[in-house]
Amino acid sequence: MTSITLYGHPESGHSYKVKLMLDVAKVDYTYRQVDILVDRDARPEPFRTLSLARFGEVPLLTLDGAHYVQSNAILIELADALGLFGGSGRRGTVTCKEWLLWEANKIGLSLPHLRLARNYFPDDYPPGAVQWLASRFQEDVGRLDKELRDGRRYILDDELSIADFSLAGYLFWSNQAQVELPETVIAWLGRIASLDGWQSPYACLSQQPGYETFGLVKDEFDPRRIAP
């Protein structure tokens, strides 16, 4: 029997990618919320030692005694271990990995920083940085829009995969980054939000009811509120 423990935090879209996959997969696992707002050396054990041995970040996953970090690497490992959402055949597996690598350098770079700059720590970003990030995001989400215009249900056509979980992770916080999403992307997010087991990021990642972010915008983007 596979033993899984996930360490995450309600403000981490990277944690959300992984936990959402586990929830939709309906596998048994343990979730432990870590306070990432305290100094890394003050975080609870065993997370502190395990995380500092790698990059000191959430998410961190333990799987049958082995430890994994970086959300997209974790998604790949879980897909392989569980035999779920990894793509059909060799071509599907490779396509999933292509999208995860693309996400890490595109939407996974621009959108989290835009969210931090516009909703949390505007003084931490130098002049011109926010404009550059916004430009990058528009180009990145435009690429995703182009892919979805053919009417496919998910990134791998009708097959739900780790590519969907990875790409969607931070897009449910697009309102906090003050960016608009194309209709195709909103519709695709709506299909993900209709999955059995889906929860919005804060509901998914918080172990205490009524969690409230310290950011300026408190709610999340709900694609189901957008008229088709």
Strand content: 5-15%
Strand arrangement within the widest β-sheet reads 2-1-3-4
Q: Shape, please?
A: globular
Percent of residues in helices = 40-55%
CATH architecture tag of the largest domain:
Up-down Bundle
CATH class of the largest domain: Mainly Alpha
> Biggest β-sheet, characterized?
4 strands, mixed
Which structural class do you get from the secondary structure elements? Answer: alpha+beta
Q: Tell me the total number of β-strands.
A: 4
Number of helices: 9
Number of domains in the coordinates? 2
Looking at the chains present, what oligomeric state does this protein adopt?
single chain
| Series of H and E elements | EHEHEEHHHHHHH
CA(first)-CA(last) distance: 43 Å
- Overall mean pLDDT: 95
Word description of this protein:
With 228 residues, the protein is an alpha+beta fold. It has two domains: 4-82, Glutaredoxin; 89-225, Glutathione S-transferase Yfyf (Class Pi), Chain A, domain 2 (Up-down Bundle). It has helices spanning 13-25, 47-52, 71-82, 89-105, 107-119, 129-148, 162-168, 183-193, 201-205; strands spanning 4-8, 30-33, 60-63, 66-69. It has a four-stranded mixed beta sheet with strand order 2-1-3-4. Helix 1 (13-25) runs parallel beside helix 3, helix 4 (89-105) runs parallel beside helix 7 and helix 5 crosses helix 6. The radius of gyration is 17 Å and the shape is globular. This is GST N-terminal domain-containing protein. InterPro entries: Glutathione-S-Trfase_C_sf, Glutathione_S-Trfase_N, Thioredoxin-like_sf. Pfam families: GST_C_2 (PF13410), GST_N (PF02798).
